[in-house]
Amino acid sequence: MNAQLKQQLNERRLDTARHEAGHVLPFLLRGLPFKNVEILPDESARTLESPNLGFVLDGDDLVLGVMRLDRVAWWTQGCSMEPDDQIMQSLAGVAGEQIEYERPNWSDGDWRGRAKGDYQHAKEIATLCAKLWGCATRTYLKNSFKEAWRILRQHKAKHDALVTGLLEKSILTYAECVEIWNREVL
Fold it and tell me: What pLDDT shows up at residue 133?
């Protein structure tokens, strides 16, 4: 594999780890359970016996990364998430990708390609909330995205630790994420 391709794959993996850690952080902040978080494996792990196709299987879809919910734990523990938190958590993935930015960059056109499912989920909830509160859906989404970015920046060291864990292992269980969250980070 040439050096340029390897660098592009490493950058894609880093962006994916930041994205997925962005989704995880609001759950950890609120003490909400999930199964695990997974990103595409490191290309260096590819062998003839274990070919890495560069994707993660999520249902019938091939994706770069995924945070898997634990619906049984949610039900048995009586968990819930307010609509504002659901919107913010959906948008936190792209906010995680932008954690190093001086200011978040909101452009809903960017969302259609790289985080289409996240944006659609947030937009459905935001449309209902915007009708209730008499504001524009786009403004509501933009403000929720900025709030997600603010929260991630506030907990940047913990976000960085989650990203490092994902880059090292490609998959982290809920317990491993909680352990990372509870560690003293400087």
Answer: 73
